[in-house]
């Protein structure tokens, strides 16, 4: 922007009509080494200590308090981050946005939560923005008083100002925590051949940890690290070996032991944990590292004009990162992981902090790195004891097991298992566990691809393969149901025959019924009526999912409309019931002004309709137990991971615990990608759908079927979010055809039947037909589209460029996968096997051969092509199947 334009914009900003934040210097801007501010006399003593400790114990002084943050009664996991500058030329938060004259911080946070975002920002009194990461050059922290504009919905609260946002962040868990007398157990298959155990060692100040994310070192400020250590190595062939090392330092006594035998291997350690209960936020100073353009800490960065070490550490901690780094006096970097190869040179960190001339903040291409040991938000604990056992169970051939359990100044331990399976290639499975000095546990062995007993096996070539989690399904006498979410809003042109076709396909896939998402469309109830007529007495069931982002719910008349909708279909023969009650669900509803108990549930009861109400509210889980009007909760966002890692069951466990005796419904989904411009739906992000997400999620739910009785597939036909498993038919949301047309997903229906059967019956079905299912995206995740005005979606870096395949084999066979010029072959056993190879330009295909004959094959031909030079962005998947 030319200087005269900058002046004009500044004047407009003062007038209150237009403003533009002064751009911050982008992280990574460095002075040349010849002119860098070299401060050899700067105070380095604090950073030379082994641990950075916040508090008054051990001679340290308590740092100045952080500015008091407003209490906005946000949902659990959300916290106030502060007032931050908007980016220039583009929005800082680009995931989703809306404006509302009734905006409050809670309204904004709730909307962002519903969409799975981890950042929410209010701006200019009536604007809300959501994202998972920053865009552009903004994000600099300003004084809280800068964000002083009253919220449209509550003038007593502030909602940013001109070009500044009140930022709120979500952190579900990544901070360190304490536990007492906890035990972790992991099992995988019994060793039937010789076993070797080696390198069992423990240094004087450390022990491995699994159940605790990090431990604490409290060292005397006047001393440097001192330790004695012992190393014991044992080897066994059908007997056992054990090793123990004990030491103490700075008042902490640590005992580490490891025992292994042919059947089991375990290690246990115990230590007394110290934590300052007044002001405990402890960071471990790793030292001054040489930085580069690739960045030692690469996930988040911000420039601060008044940066101190404290302000950077607090910023990273508030955002949920484990590592923080300061560089060149004004640059703060955060990350969940540390670069694999780091070179340290303490002499290079010699630039004073912009906000405190008494301390240094890195140097020129030199970054001082800190690791979070325990957070101020964690409760204090002491004498915590944790143990873990890992055992290995029955494999069909000789197994060589090498266990390394070590603890050293680098605070890390690793356990690995290397297996050689007969009639297949080798597989290596490993897990690393952090270890520090004053907390203790053992590295609990968790195998990421668990060997199944009969229905699956593992093969490895230069590509990759894994298997279903297990063919041993937990028993449960309770009825289990599988539903699919059906968007009525995409069925304007549907006739009874369209509904009949959908119902037949879903029934064949093991689905019990549809949750009919209905909004405010005037024709919606007519399409729902057609659906109930088509289902008739076939046994396929339907229930309403009231879309409360569309339906009004602010008045008694709005409530009466909802009651009328439910009443219209409650007596239909195809109406779904649970515990002999009419099933009703919602999408959202936590922001409704109506009283769900009196205006909805009680009103229906008075009309002779008892409902089983299982909404998806997107509200604080702590409210579930007191919401007497709900019988359960659908955890919508449990269907996808919202970050860069694979999906876990953490969210399931949180909901199940909060619901108590109420019913928990879990979500399962194959993909998620949406790509709409700000002038339309203003949605542009993806969720990581890699590593066979659909299979992995089903396997998780099957393993939890003792507590999870209801599963809802998201979705049957939500084309605008690429999560559909049904055919592409009906009426697509305008603009979605760009990333949906030609991207069929019906190949997933056979997998749906396989997993849904196991979930409902407690046993995986026999595989009676060889089948190959494969899916891929049409371009590299980091490709640059030549003609796309919307831009890359948020989360694009979370996904990887693989052709994924699932093989269901009746007997042992050879599978060959091809992507462009790349071809790889795998040996598979009978059962379900997951395979992947890297994508290359061209089409995709695959074959299953046995005894020299092809028993199943798929070739996408011209239906799909992977290109490295896309015209527009498309992170949707194309699915092909040998049976379709």
Automatic annotation (TrEMBL):
PROSITE patterns found in the cross-reference section: WSC (PS51212)
Keywords, comma-separated and alphabetical: Repeat, Signal
Chain intervals for the UniProt region annotation (Disordered): 428-447
Molecular function GO terms recorded: glucan endo-1,3-alpha-glucosidase activity
SMART domains listed in its UniProt record: WSC
Residue stretches spanning the membrane: none
Keyword Protein biosynthesis: no
Source species: Cryptococcus wingfieldii CBS 7118
Name this polypeptide is given: Glucan endo-1,3-alpha-glucosidase agn1
Superkingdom of source: Eukaryota
WSC domain sequence ranges: 77-171, 282-373
Signal peptide annotation: 1-21
InterPro entries: Glyco_hydro_71 (IPR005197), Sialate-O-sulfotransferase (IPR051589), WSC_carb-bd (IPR002889)
A Pfam family assignment: Glyco_hydro_71
């Amino acid at each position: 922007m030319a200087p005269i334009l900058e002046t004009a914009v500044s004047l407009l900003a003062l007038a209150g009509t237009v403003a533009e934040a002064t751009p911050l210097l982008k992280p990574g801007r460095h002075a040349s080494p010849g002119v860098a501010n070299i401060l050899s006399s700067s105070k380095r003593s604090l950073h030379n200590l082994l641990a950075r400790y916040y508090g008054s114990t051990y001679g340290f002084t308590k740092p100045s308090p952080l500015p008091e943050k407003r209490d906005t009664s946000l949902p659990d996991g959300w916290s106030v981050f502060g007032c931050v500058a908007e980016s220039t030329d583009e929005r800082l938060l680009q995931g989703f946005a809306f404006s509302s004259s009734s905006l409050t911080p809670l309204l904004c946070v709730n909307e962002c939560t519903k969409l799975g975002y981890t950042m929410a920002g209010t701006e200019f009194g009536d604007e809300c923005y959501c994202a998972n990461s920053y865009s552009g050059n903004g994000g600099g922290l300003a004084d809280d008083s800068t964000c002083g504009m009253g919220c449209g919905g509550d003038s007593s609260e502030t909602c940013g100002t001109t070009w500044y946002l009140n930022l709120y962040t979500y952190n579900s868990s990544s901070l360190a925590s304490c536990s007492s007398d906890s035990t972790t157990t992991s099992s995988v298959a019994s060793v039937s051949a010789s076993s070797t155990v080696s390198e069992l060692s423990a240094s004087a100040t450390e022990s491995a940890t699994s159940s605790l994310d990090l431990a604490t070192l409290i060292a005397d400020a006047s001393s440097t690290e001192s330790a004695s250590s012992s190393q014991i190595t044992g080897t066994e062939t059908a007997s056992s070996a054990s090793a123990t090392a004990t030491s103490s330092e700075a008042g902490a006594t640590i005992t580490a032991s490891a025992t292994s035998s042919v059947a089991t291997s375990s290690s246990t350690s115990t230590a007394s944990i110290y934590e300052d209960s007044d002001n405990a936020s402890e960071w471990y100073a790793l030292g001054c590292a040489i930085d580069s353009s690739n960045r030692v800490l690469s996930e988040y960065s911000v420039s601060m004009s008044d940066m101190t070490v404290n302000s950077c550490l607090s910023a990273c901690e508030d955002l949920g990162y484990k590592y923080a780094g300061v560089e060149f006096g004004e640059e703060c970097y955060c990350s969940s992981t540390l670069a694999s190869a780091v070179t340290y040179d303490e002499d290079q960190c010699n630039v004073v902090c912009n906000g405190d001339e008494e301390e240094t903040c890195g140097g020129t291409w030199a970054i001082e790195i800190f690791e979070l040991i325990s957070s101020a938000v964690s409760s204090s604990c002491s004498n915590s004891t944790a143990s873990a056992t890992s055992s290995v169970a029955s494999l069909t051939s000789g197994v060589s097991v090498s266990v390394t359990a070590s603890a050293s100044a680098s605070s890390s331990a690793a356990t690995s298992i290397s297996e050689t399976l007969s009639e297949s290639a080798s597989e290596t499975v490993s897990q690393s566990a952090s270890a520090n000095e004053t907390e203790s546990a053992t590295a609990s062995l968790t195998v990421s691809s668990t060997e199944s007993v009969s229905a699956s096996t593992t093969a490895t070539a230069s590509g990759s393969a894994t298997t279903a989690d297990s063919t041993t399904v937990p028993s449960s006498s309770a009825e289990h149901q599988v539903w699919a979410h059906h968007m009525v809003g995409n069925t304007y042109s549907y006739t009874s025959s369209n509904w009949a076709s959908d119902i037949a396909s879903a029934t064949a896939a093991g689905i019990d019924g549809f949750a009919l998402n209905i909004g405010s469309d005037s024709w919606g109830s007519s399409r729902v009526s057609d659906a109930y007529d088509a289902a008739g007495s076939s046994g396929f069931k339907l229930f309403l999912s009231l879309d409360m982002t569309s339906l009004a719910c602010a008045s008694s008349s709005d409530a009466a409309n909802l009651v009328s909708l439910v009443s219209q279909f409650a007596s239909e023969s195809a109406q779904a019931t649970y515990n002999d009650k009419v099933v009703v669900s919602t999408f959202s509803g936590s922001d409704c002004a109506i009283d769900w108990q009196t205006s909805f549930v009680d009103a229906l009861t008075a009309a002779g309709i008892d409902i089983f109400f299982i909404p998806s509210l997107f509200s604080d889980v702590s409210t579930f137990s007191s919401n007497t009007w709900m019988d359960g909760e659908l955890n919508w966002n449990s269907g996808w991971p919202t970050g860069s890692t694979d999906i876990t069951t953490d969210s399931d466990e949180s909901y199940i615990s909060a619901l108590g005796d109420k019913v928990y419904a879990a979500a399962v989904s194959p993909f998620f990608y949406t790509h709409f411009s700000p002038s339309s739906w203003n949605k542009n992000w993806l969720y990581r759908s890699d590593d066979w997400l659909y299979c992995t999620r089903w396997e998780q739910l099957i393993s939890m079927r003792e507590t999870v009785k209801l599963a809802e597939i998201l979705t049957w036909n939500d084309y605008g979010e690429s999560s559909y498993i049904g055919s592409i038919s009906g009426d697509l949301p305008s603009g979605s055809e760009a990333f949906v047309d030609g991207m069929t997903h019906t190949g997933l229906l056979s997998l749906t039947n396989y997993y849904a059967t196991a979930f409902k019956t407690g046993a995986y079905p026999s595989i009676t037909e060889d089948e190959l299912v494969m899916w891929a995206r049409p371009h590299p995740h980091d490709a640059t589209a030549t003609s796309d005005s919307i831009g890359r979606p948020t989360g694009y870096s979370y996904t990887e460029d693989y052709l994924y395949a699932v093989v269901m084999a009746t007997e042992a066979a050879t599978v060959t996968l091809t992507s462009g010029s790349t071809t790889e072959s795998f040996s598979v056993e009978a059962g379900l096997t997951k395979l992947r190879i890297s994508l290359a330009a061209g089409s995709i295909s695959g074959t299953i051969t046995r005894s020299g004959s092809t028993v199943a094959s798929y070739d996408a031909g011209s239906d799909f092509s992977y290109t490295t030079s896309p015209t527009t962005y498309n992170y949707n998947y194309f699915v092909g199947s040998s049976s379709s």
